[in-house]
Amino acid sequence: MDGQIQNGKSDQHSDLDLVAAINSGDVVAFEVLYLRYRDWVVGLARRFAGNDDLAMDVLQETFLYVLKKFPGFALTSNFKTFLYPAVKNLAIAARNKARRYQSTEAEIARVESTPDPVESNCPDDLRQILKRLSQEHREVLLLRFVDGLDLAEIAQVMDIPLGTVKSRLHNALATLRADPRTKKFFE
Amino acid sequence: MNNDVPREEDLKAPPRLIEALKQACSERIFVPPTIDQTIFKAAERQLSPSGRGRVRPFWWWSALTTTAVLVAFALVTVQWQRSANGRFALEDVNRDGQIDILDAFALALQVKQGRSLEKRLDLNGDGVIDEKDVATIAEHAVKLERGGRS
């Protein structure tokens, strides 16, 4: 790559190109990288944090964390696999903190009634089935088919063996295949 | 839970399911422009050479230290030049950079206490440091004060 990243040609550059440019102090390259992953990060953050406000906080904290890695950041894998643990941990922490700081019973009741993130975003059939899955099985399923990570990347971000990823994904799919409400997707 | 390693084909989902999952769980969330701007400003601060937080204190302290050293050097030089400035410096008993009646008082006190005094204070050159030397300083100080301070 020669010179600085141009905003209008952002799609031409790989994540590696952008990271190299950011390491050289290119602010536009950072903006391109941010806009490329912003919506994914905020969607993932809502999945774990439970609401949009917390997801916005997590979005900011995540990219401030990313910024601190520069200069000198080396991208050794898919950028999503780098972001995922940060987003997940920040989102869970934000959700726990929000619960801790509720002072009145009404507020506690409101937080406890906060819908499960999957529940709030999915249509009825799928919502009910996904709700039946354990958090671990649902996470693997969504990482694979919504976030587009491959099995090795899922093992990396969840810090579990590849065999466990396969087993969980297999079981999640089997649950969906067996349920009459989602059976139609397999026909 | 099934502990056998599943076959690859058992880990694939039909396109219709994938599409439904994506539609269901990838609902776009509006991010206010103020959040984008906050992050972009942080990026400018962190990435631009003049704005890097870790660099600024170094330059700041470096400039401050250099200034302090230069000021100290100038003060020492001026003081040294004053003290080395001919016979008036000999009469500056209390070494405050000025020759005035206070120098006469200072010498008078030292003579009265009978201390052994530096030879340089023998201002009239008679080989003895006494009231005459005090008078010499006082005389000189009065002359200077009439014509203006040294």
Notes on the structure:
The complex is a heterodimer of chains A (187) and B (150). With 187 residues, chain A is an all-alpha fold. Helix content of chain A is 69%, strand content 0%. Chain A folds into 2 domains: 1-114, Rna Polymerase Sigma Factor, Chain: A; 115-187, Orthogonal Bundle (Arc Repressor Mutant, subunit A), CATH 1.10.10.10. Chain A has helices at residues 15-23, 27-49, 52-68, 79-100, 105-112, 117-121, 124-132, 135-145, 151-158, 162-178. In chain A, helix 3 (52-68) crosses helix 4 (79-100), helix 8 crosses helix 10 and helix 9 crosses helix 10 (162-178). The termini of chain B are far apart. Chain B has 150 residues and is an all-alpha fold. Chain B is rod-shaped and about 120 Å long. Chain B has a domain at 87-147: Orthogonal Bundle (Type 1 dockerin domain), CATH 1.10.1330. Chain B contains 6 helices and no strands.
Element pattern of chain A in H and E: HHHHHHHHHH
Q: Poorly predicted ranges of chain B (pLDDT <50, ≥5 residues)?
A: none
The number of distinct β-strands of chain A equals: 0
Residue-averaged pLDDT of chain B = 76
Helical content band of chain A: 55-70%
Terminal CA distance of chain A reads: 47 Å
CA(first)-CA(last) distance of chain B = 101 Å
Rg of chain B (C-alpha, Å): 42 Å
- Quickly give the structural class of chain A: mainly alpha
**Second rung of CATH, namely the architecture of the domain at 87-147 in chain B:** Orthogonal Bundle
- CATH fold annotation of the largest domain in chain A: Rna Polymerase Sigma Factor, Chain: A
Number of helices, counting only DSSP H or I runs of 4 residues or more of chain A: 10
